[in-house]
Design brief:
Elements: H1 8-24, H2 28-44, H3 48-60, H4 69-81, E1 83-84, E2 87-88, H5 96-105
Antiparallel strand pairs: 1-2
Amino acid sequence: MLSRKGDLEGAEKNYLASLARARQQHAKGWELHTSTSLAKLWQSQGKRKEAHDLLAPVYTWFTEGFDTKDLKNGQGVIRGTRRVKGRRVCQGFTPPGLRETKLRRGQ
């Protein structure tokens, strides 16, 4: 909500507080949702590496449920953090959901 109003600093502060609470409570789904939102914000500010470094470890914790909205959103953000002007920023990481898709297709 704050990011929509242009208060990016306030939005980041709230996301960080939410992330800390999710981690404190070991709520992985909540942590994924918040990490994805914060990563989107950072990505919009050109902080692609920071966004990737935040979201990738949370995303890789999951081993199933790749058809859920939060994991699909996380995967999309991770894909967006991997390229800057046609070159890879974060190499060596393939989101698990994408890995399974490639295996099913025989790639």
